[in-house]
Input
Amino acid sequence: ETGVTQTPRHLVMGMTNKKSLKCEQHLGHNAMYWYKQSAKKPLELMFVYNFKEQTENNSVPSRFSPECPNSSHLFLHLHTLQPEDSALYLCASSALPVQGASYEQYFGPGTRLTVT
Amino acid sequence: AQKITQTQPGMFVQEKEAVTLDCTYDTSDPSYGLFWYKQPSSGEMIFLIYQGSYDQQNATEGRYSLNFQKARKSANLVISASQLGDSAMYFCAMREGIGYKLSFGAGTTVTVRA
Output
């Protein structure tokens, strides 16, 4: 596997279910991100992890619970979601911030989540 | 306030022609980076090109070039010799300082016609 992978690619869940999204990066990066992309809205940053430590939580509801066991893996645990949480969830990774460097983020293919 | 503005929701371009996608940004931080990403219908965001605020020259990557006008706070993407595979959504994004957060624009859909 190369780049950033995400599983599953599609997920349909009821509001009372518990599920998890998985992300794995094979780029040797130390920062990982979760984004939410809803229809007709710009991409929204949800969480940032740096060396397994959460460095940013962008006021995300507690029904979304991230986990980063190591620099290569990132999970998003979902429970009691609402229909408005239906969206494309994208994972990304990057090198660590360095002044003057681009440290662009590389994205996975996303998980298309539908909450019924 | 909107940090990244992309005013063109959709554009059509003829194959082999060039297309310019507009992006304006708003920041008071002297150090920032500007990015363009491509998102095909498959969903994956593909990094295309980067321009740093202190870079003297406009960035180029193959058929992609960035027209960086600092005083006007614009960072337009030019795709030359369009191909059918260029049909996708294109997003402009900005990072301020050396933080992690990217602010994305609303995107522009490009459709290349044969």
Q: What stands out?
A: Chain A touches chain B at residues 31, 33, 41-43, 45, 48, 50, 55-56, 88, 90, 92, 94, 97-100, 102, 104-110, 112 (CB under 8 Å).
